[in-house]
Amino acid sequence: MPRSGAGQIVLIGAPNCGKSSIVAGLTNAKVHVADFPFATGAPVPGMVPFEDIQIELVDMPPITADYSAPGQVGTYRNCDLIAIVIDLSADVQEQLQICLDYLESRSLLVDNETPAYDSQGNVLGKKAFCICTKSDIAKSGALENLKKLCKYPFEFFEVSAVTDDGLEGLSEKLFKQLGIIRIYSKPPGKPADMTDPFTLPVGSTVMDLATAVHRQLAEKLKFARIWGTGVYDGQNTQRNHVLNDKDVIELHFS
Ligand SMILES: Nc1nc2c(ncn2[C@@H]2O[C@H](COP(=O)(O)OP(=O)(O)O)[C@@H](O)[C@H]2O)c(=O)[nH]1
Ligand SMILES: [Mg+2]
């Protein structure tokens, strides 16, 4: 699955749990919503707009206790974040178990036992969270039950594709889950391009931005000025200054 946008989030869940409906609700992707299982046969990417960036959300074929599509695992290995989709109107324990078994048996989840990297240095564990669907027809106590059953510190977001409850706020939650910040680069003496930010992991520094802007020139960074959070406008900053979402940076190379 080729990647685009500021981050890629891939859905996992049982047949009919509402995966395609989420992608249909948040993106313009032509996904197939159907009331029969296995309507989605291959990964289908869609772009979720959030303010001035796009987040890629990938609809997936379902998994069951004894079936998953061949090649599906590669899509999970390459993504930034996994969204476990649980239908609150069905058996939440069974669905959670199937998803966790699939992910754990392939070392796809971050936990205390799974090392972060394999012996070749490939990243193993992915961050994950839960999207809980069909809140309009949820069994009473289903969400509380699910939270109690889950041993991972996931966040749980409740949505309904029928009433749209929770869908509008979901794009911001996807952004927060991705753990990225947006930085606007400003050429000296010119206004910043506020339409097309660089996206970097939370915790990135001025030097990380310089590397993202121009890998070859980065070592020649002389100084940078910053407009944003926790600084005064146009303040000179160090290479190791940690950036915040929506900071504007003017890089000066020697
Ligand atoms: N009541 C209700 N039905 C939903 C909701 N989301 C999906 N469905 C229905 O559940 C069925 C399966 O949805 P779909 O998105 O295709 O599930 P997928 O197999 O996981 O991709 C369809 O009949 C949808 O209309 C929801 O939030 N509420
Ligand atoms: Mg589907």
Structure report:
This protein is α/β, with parallel strands linked by helices and 254 residues long. The protein has two domains: 8-178, P-loop containing nucleotide triphosphate hydrolases (Rossmann fold, 3-Layer(aba) Sandwich), CATH 3.40.50; 180-253, Ubiquitin-like (UB roll) (Roll), CATH 3.10.20.30. Helices cover 21% and strands 26% of the residues. The protein has six helices and eleven strands. It has helices at 19-26, 72-78, 92-105, 142-149, 170-178, 206-213; strands at residues 8-13, 44-50, 53-59, 81-87, 127-133, 156-158, 180-186, 198-201, 221-227, 235-237, 247-253. It has a six-stranded mixed β-sheet, sandwiched between helices. Strand 9 (221-227) and strand 10 (235-237) form a beta hairpin. The longest helix is centred in the middle third of the chain and has 14 residues, at 92-105. The protein is elongated. Guanosine-5'-diphosphate binds next to helix 1.
